[in-house]
Design goal:
The chain is an all-alpha fold. It has one domain (31-202). It is built from eight helices and two strands; from the N terminus they run E-H-H-H-H-H-H-H-H-E. It has helices spanning 12-36, 42-54, 58-76, 79-102, 110-129, 138-149, 153-168, 174-194; strands spanning 7-8, 201-202. A two-stranded parallel ribbon has the order 1-2. Helix 2 (42-54) packs antiparallel against helix 3. It is globular, with a radius of gyration of 16 Å. The two termini are 25 Å apart.
C-alpha cells in the first residue's frame, strides 16, 4: 500500500507570515546581489540584466517582466497561486527600493556574496512554494513542469540559468559571471534537494 502524503492547509495568518518572510529574504538577497554587482538566474536574472543595461530600477523591470507569466499561472496553476505570486512580486518590487535606504554594505567578498545570495533566495523561494506562491516568471513554468512531469523544478531552473549565463558571458566581465553562476547553482541545488511534492503539499 502506498502511503499518501496529506495536504497541509495554511490559514490566512500562516500565508501572511510565510509570504512576508519569503519576500523579505528575497529583498535582502537582491540588495546584496546588486551591491556586489552580480547577476542572478531565472526571471530575476533577466530583470537584473535589463536594469543594469537600461538604468531602470530593478523593481520596475522585475514587475513588468513577470506580467506575461500571470496568464499562464492563472490558467494552469490556479487563482490562489496567481494571486499569491502577484502579491509576492509586487511586494518584492517595492522592497528592493526601500531596503537600500536602511541597509548599506561597505565591503562584500564576491564569492561570499554569491553564496549568500544563492542561499537566501533559495530559502525564500522554498518558503513561498510551501505557501502556494512564487516570485513569478520561470518559477511558474518550473513548478508547472514539476507538477505535470515529475521533473524537479530546481533542475528546470538550472537548465534555464545555464542558457542565461551563457549569454551573460558576452555582456559582463567573466569573473562577475562566474561568481554569479556559483550563486545561481547554490540557489537551484537548494530548490532541487528540498522542494518535493511527495514530502510537502500545501493548499
Amino acid at each position: 500500500m502506498t502511503d499518501q502524503i496529506p495536504k497541509t492547509t495554511h490559514s490566512l495568518l500562516d500565508d501572511v507570515q510565510g509570504i512576508s518572510l519569503g519576500v523579505f529574504l528575497a529583498g535582502i538577497s537582491v540588495h546584496l546581489l546588486t551591491t556586489v554587482g552580480l547577476i542572478t538566474g531565472q526571471t530575476a536574472g533577466i530583470a537584473v540584466i535589463i536594469s543594469y543595461l537600461s538604468g531602470y530600477s530593478f523593481g520596475l523591470v522585475f514587475f513588468l517582466v513577470n506580467i506575461p507569466f500571470y496568464v499562464l499561472a492563472w490558467k494552469r496553476l490556479g487563482k490562489m497561486f496567481t494571486i499569491k505570486s502577484l502579491i509576492s512580486v509586487t511586494l518584492l518590487s517595492i522592497l528592493t527600493t526601500i531596503i537600500p535606504l536602511g541597509m548599506v554594505f561597505t565591503y562584500i567578498d564576491p564569492l561570499l556574496g554569491a553564496l549568500t545570495c544563492g542561499a537566501l533566495t533559495g530559502v525564500a523561494l522554498l518558503v513561498l512554494f510551501r505557501h502556494n506562491g512564487s516570485l513569478g516568471g520561470l518559477g511558474v513554468v518550473a513548478l508547472l513542469i514539476q507538477d505535470t512531469t515529475g521533473f524537479r523544478a530546481g533542475w528546470v531552473q538550472l537548465i534555464f540559468d545555464a542558457c542565461l549565463f551563457g549569454l551573460a558571458f558576452f555582456i559582463f566581465d567573466t569573473a562577475i559571471v562566474i561568481y554569479s553562476l556559483i550563486g545561481a547553482v547554490t540557489l537551484n541545488l537548494i530548490i532541487a534537494f528540498n522542494h518535493r511534492r511527495d514530502r510537502y503539499i500545501a493548499t
